[in-house]
Predict the structure.
Amino acid sequence: MYHPRFRGNHYGIGLKYRSQFGQLAYRNWEDLMKLFNMIALVSLLIIVGACSTGNIIVGGPISHTSLQDGIYDGSAKNGPVKVKAKITVSEQKITNIDLIEHRTWKGGQAEGIIPARIIEAQSTKVDAVSGATMSSVAIMNAVEDAVQKAQ
């Protein structure tokens, strides 16, 4: 049976048809599920792409022979987390780290732990705090930025 609103052959087999309001409507459940699966796949790809950005630690062990004594500022951003740090270098070692600014949502617990780990290891690449990975990475990168200025 042919109807002018159907998009298909004269047997009425079509994926889409025009509803009475001129909008495209889906004729059967399988077509609707194909559309839903395609939308879900695109959404998943967008979410995975957004989550994979950031969390890149730029630092590593500190070369003590090239550090100049003094106080240096550094900053870094990792996603929504923003950090400004001030480091003190004495006798070619990092002796103090002050976080001037730490804009975060749930990463507050990294504020005391990561600077202590950096000073102890004398490296800007240390283990992150569980549950505060983005803040941990931002703090490490801000300290690395300051270390680069101290060299």
Q: What stands out?
A: Residues 64-150 form a domain with the Sufe protein. Chain: A fold (CATH 3.90.1010.20). Residues 121 and 148 are 17 Å apart (CA to CA).
